[in-house]
Structure formats: structure tokens, C-alpha cells
Amino acid sequence: MRLNALFLFLSLFWPFAKVLAHPLPDVAVRASFEQNGDWTLQVEIDPRSFEPDPNVAPYLTNADLGVTPPEQKDKLKATARDYIQRVVAVVLDPVVEVKPEFDWQFTTMENAPLKTPEDPVMLTGTWKTKIPAGTTGYSIKALPEGTLSVLYHNTALGKKVERYQILFPGESSYVLSLKTFSPRSKAPPPITTDAGAAAAGDLMCPMCEAAAGSGYTLPALASVAIIVALVTFLRKKRAA
Length: 240
Prior knowledge:
240 residues; 2 domains; 6 helices; 10 strands; 34% helix; globular
């Protein structure tokens, strides 16, 4: 009976576990500015982004990359080059046409070198150039054609700009002043809820807050419900 119950649990929970195991990929855009006008633009793309359903696509691991033919690696880099042009636009103020020429490398997350066989592989493109003369502002836009979120990170004079953004397709980032290296506009106030409503929500669903933070609320809640039901079932069987 215990083995049958365990098998039932695994068969019900496994589809949700697979969804929770690999978070939906996003596109990271990181810019670094120096006082002398040096500008480094870096983008990071998870190859899962190229799949029809990135949510369920498995990571490309360092072990997989080791057995990937050179021509396939070149194809991945070419796909990344085309992909970034379709999903992100760089905007300078005053308007200057920007056509980054990225040098693509295989890394793991945050531009870290690949080490272990299990490391997930990212395509990281780096472009080093000079800020065009007269340019006073920098921002990006997540183009409507994209389907994933875009992360907007900036570093100025060796220090990270505290404010960063998550952009959805069609949204534009704040403008970073290239004179003061600070956002030109203030961040919107944080979203708050009525204390009474929040308290009532906590009483109704004490596990919802943790589940909602993952971005997979429905699968997480379904998994919790399954676990509770199975525990109740096993207790009843044991009492009988």
C-alpha cells in the first residue's frame, strides 16, 4: 500500500515538479559606463529562449555543449545575434542609431565561466565601444515581438546602479543620465495592499505568498493540494 501511494504521489506531482525545476528564461541587458566615455554593452540569452515553449525546454548544459558540433555552435551564435535584434532596442538621447556588434561566447549565468558538466549554458554577447559625442541619456526598449521579460542592469564608474527593471514586451526602461549616471526619473512607489485585506488573505491561504513569489502560483498550489490530500489519505489508511 505504501509503495502504491508513493507511486501515485510521484505520478501526480512530477508534471508540476518539471515546471518548477526550470524557471522561465529572460533576456539580461547589462551596460557599463566609464568616465572616459568607454561603454560596454552585454546581453545574456538562454538558448531555451529559441524553443517554441521555453518553459518546458531543458537547459543546454556544459556537458551537452562538449558534444555539440562546431557548426551547431556557430548556428546558436547566429540565432542569438538575430534574436537580440528582434527583442531589444538600444535608445540613446539625442537619438543616435545604434547597431551593436556583439562578440558571442558560451558562458554560464552572469557571464561566469563554465566549469562543471551541470552548468547551464548561456549565450553572452559583449560589445565595447565609446559613447557617441553629445549623448546624454541611455535606455532600452523590450520590443513587442518578444515573448520573454528583459532585465535592465547598469553599472557606472565601477558601481552598480541600484535601480534595475524587469521589462515586458512593449515596455521601455527608465533613462540613465550619462552626465550624472543616475536615473532621470524616480522609481514608481511600491505596490501596497490594504492591511486588513492582506491579513484576511493570509488566513485564507497561508502558503500562497511563498508560492506567488516563484512565478508558478497555480502549479505550486496544485502541488500543495496534492500533498495534503495524499497525507490525509495515508493517515486514514493507517488508522483503518
